[in-house]
Amino acid sequence: MGDEQKAENTKDKLAGKAKEAVGKVTGDESLERQGKNDQSKANLKDAGEKVKDAFKR
Questions:
Q1: Quick check: 26 pLDDT over 90?
Q2: pTM of the entire structure?
Q3: What are phi and psi of 28, to 5 degrees?
Q4: Cα dihedral 48/50/51/54 (nearest 10)
Q5: pLDDT tens-digit profile of 30-44?
Q6: Could you give the CA distance from residue 4 to residue 41 in angstroms, rounded to a whole number?
């Protein structure tokens, strides 16, 4: 996995966690769901990159 893509995915995960936390604190269920969704997307991107790396070997 490229370092640039890895950093981007990590940034997305952290942003998602922040959204989720703010949503919990403020009682905003929509924001909390958005945060969880952002984290899921970043995890899927990581998995896709790992599959690509496996086929490159």
A1: yes
A2: 0.82
A3: -90, 95
A4: 160
A5: 999 999 999 999 999
A6: 17
